[in-house]
Amino acid sequence: MASSLTCTGVIWALLSFLCAATSCVGFFMPYWLWGSQLGKPVSFGTFRRCSYPVHDESRQMMVMVEECGRYASFQGIPSAEWRICTIVTGLGCGLLLLVALTALMGCCVSELISRTVGRVAGGIQFLGGKCEIGWAYYCTGAGAAAAILLCTWLACFSGKKQKQYPY
């Protein structure tokens, strides 16, 4: 099977996919911040939460729902900053996945990734990798940081030189 990637390009493709997967797992998990409320441990991420308080109408008091889930609506996310973080981080993870899957296809398709395409893909990884404290936060940040630093550098050497045709 022909490849449009150099050996460095294959490493870039695999590492890009690993970084994208790490960032997406961290983005999806509700363990960005940890704490306690009403004597129960709570955690939340940009669009998911675990153990959250609700008002019980029958008992006229706050009770803790001890389960994980998404907010009922986008407006249910606690603040405008967290909503912006959800959008920006989600778009960044989407860009990382797009670049990683394109790079992986370059392992199997001849002349898909040129040096210019590799450098553009590395630039997209650099722009899409900034994130804003639990393990999911660090997971997202580590995946983004690796994409920014290592994958961007490897992308510059990923494509094979194009053959020059005389016509």
Automatic annotation (TrEMBL):
Its main location: membrane. The chain crosses the membrane at residues 12-34, 84-105, 135-157. It is found in: Membrane. Pfam families: L_HMGIC_fpl. Keywords: Membrane, Transmembrane, Transmembrane helix. The keyword Membrane applies. InterPro entries: LHFPL (IPR019372). It is a multi-pass membrane protein. One of its GO terms (cellular component) is membrane. This is LHFPL tetraspan subfamily member 6.
